[in-house]
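Session log. Operator J.P. requested a structure for one protein chain; no other inputs attached. Running the standard single-chain path with C-alpha cell output.
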Amino acid sequence: MRSTFAEKIKNEILSSECDYEYICKSLTDDFESTIAGILKSFRRLLKHMDEDNKNVFNTLIKILNTHLKKKKNKNDLEFLYNKIDEFLSNLSNSFNESKLLELEEYISILIDIQNKCLLNPFKKHKSDRYNFMMYLIFENKNIELLSKYINNNMKELLINNSLLSSVFASVIEKYISINSENKPLINYYNQIINLFLNGKLYDRLFKSNGSIFIDILKSSDKDFVWDLIDRLENDLLITKEDLAREYNVSFTFPKDLEEFTFSSRKAVDFTHQNIITIDNNGDTCLDDALYVRENTNGTNTLYFHLANPPSIIPYSSNTMQEALKRTETIYLEDMEIPIFKEELSNNILSILPNKKTNTLTFIVDVDTDFSIILDTVKVVPGVVINRNKLSYEEVDEILKRADNDELSKQIILLSQICNKLSRSQLKILAYHKLENLTKEKKKIHLSSDLSPSHLIVENSMIFVNRLPDILDKYHHLNLIFPYRVQPECTDKCITDILENIENIDPNSSTFRKIAKNYMFPSKYSPVNIGHIGLGVNGYVRIGSAARRAMDALALYILDDLYINRNKGDLDIKYYYWEKEIKYWCEYANNRISENNIFAEEYNYLKSKGKILKK
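Structure written below.
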C-alpha cells in the first residue's frame, strides 16, 4: 500500500500541474511514503534537468526545508537521512562520473538536506564502505591499498559527502592527537591527508566543510599541525622538499657516500662479444645487455649481461646501504630520483657504449628449436664493451630489413629465441602487461607494447628473473634470495581477511573482489612460496640492479654464496644473509608503497602548478 502511495506522489509531482499543497499535507500524514515518492521523482528530474524540472526540484527542496524546521521526530529524520543516502548510492551506480559532476549542484543540495537531519555533521557511518575505509586507515595502514580503493570508488565518495566527511574528520582528530616526537606516525597521517587533498575529493570536502576542518586543526598548538593549516590556507602550495619529507624521500644524497672508480677484478673477458642493449632513446642507465653465439652443432648459447654493483661497491658501504633505503629509482613527471649517484647509475655501473663495464653474466644453451636447455645455466663475473646501444625503433627496423650482416643475424636470433620463450611463458607475459597497465609508470622496464623489440626485452628479462631459482634447483645449491612472491588467493583466504574487519560483511561480493584484487599483491619475501600470478615456483628480480636495490641485493647474495662459495665459512655467510634478506624484504615492501604514493602525489601537484621552488 505504501509503495502505491509513493508512486501516486511521484506521478503528482511529475504531472504538468502539481498540487504542492497536497505534497505538504502528505508529508504530515504519511511522511515515509511521501519521501519515497519525492525521491522517485528526483531520479526522473535529475535525468532530464531542463528549466521546468529545475523549478520543480527547487520547489520540492523548499518544501522539505520548511518541513524539517518543524520536524522533531528523530526516527523520521533518521529515515530521511538513510533514504537520501540510499538514493545517492543508487544514483552513483546509474550515472557515469561526468553526468554526476553535471548534477553536482543538485547533489550538494540533497547532501545539505541530509546533514540537516543530524545534530553531528560528521555522523559515524555504519556502512561497509565507511568501516572498510576506517580499517584501511587505522588498522591495515596500507596507503597504496587505500589509494586504489578511493580511486575505484570515486563516484560514491564524491556524492556521499557525509561518509567522506566522517572519515576525514576521524583522520584529522587522530592527527592532532599525535605526539610531536612521533615522526613516523606524523608522516603516515600526512600521507593519508594528502590522499584527501587531491582534486575532486578536496573540492568536495572543502567546499562544504573546509572551515570546520580548519577549526578542528586550529584547536591544536603543535607545529606540524600548523604546517598543514598553512598549506590548506595557501591553496595546497608546497615545496618538493617538504612533500618528499612527508614520504621519507630525499632528492639529494648524504654527504658521507663514498666515491668509486671502475676496477675489474677477476672476471671472464667478454669484450670480444658484439653485445647489444635495447632501451629508450636518451636512456643512460643501461643495466642489461644480450648476446647470442651460434654453435657448430646447430645450438646457440645465450648470454645475459647484467649490471654488477657487487664488483664496484662493497655491500657494507654507505653507498649501498643508502641505495637499499631508497629501494628503487622513482620516476616523476619532470625528473628521476635514483638509488645511486649519477656517476654510478649512469656511468660506472651502466653498460654504456665504448667503455669497459663489469657484469654478472648468466649463460645458458639454446636447443636447435630455440628452446632453453635449463640444466646448462651458469653464472660468472664478466667484463663487456657495448658497441651497439640500440633503441626499440632501431631494433624493429633491423628486424624489418633482415639484412645479412652480423648485427642483423644477432638480433634475428634473439628474436627467434624470445618468440619461443613467449610461447612457453604466456601467463607470465600476460601478468606483466596487466601489471604495467595498472601501474601506468613512465619508463617502466617492461612494456605492454607488442613490437618485436619490446618482446625481446620483455621475454628476456622475465626469463632472467627466473634464472637464480633455475640455477639453484638444477645444481642443488640450496641458495637463499629475496624472492618476489604472490600467495594463492583462495576463497578461504579472502573470508579470513574480511572476517577480521569489524562490521564488514565477509560475504559481500564488493569486498571479496577488493580482497582478491588488492590484498594479495606480489611482494618480497625471504620464504619462496612461488608466484601464483606468474605461475612460476621461483622468481627473483635481478635484471635492474642499477635501478632496483633489491635486484642488487640478490646479486650480492649470488656473488657470495655461489661465485665465492668456497671463500670463508659458508654457515656464517648463510646466517648473515638470512638476516639481511628478512630485514630488507619487509622494508622494501613498505618503502615501495610509499614511493608509489609519493610519485602520484608529486605528479598531481606538479600538473596543477602547486609545487613551489625552494
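Operator note: The first strand starts at residue 238 and ends at 239.
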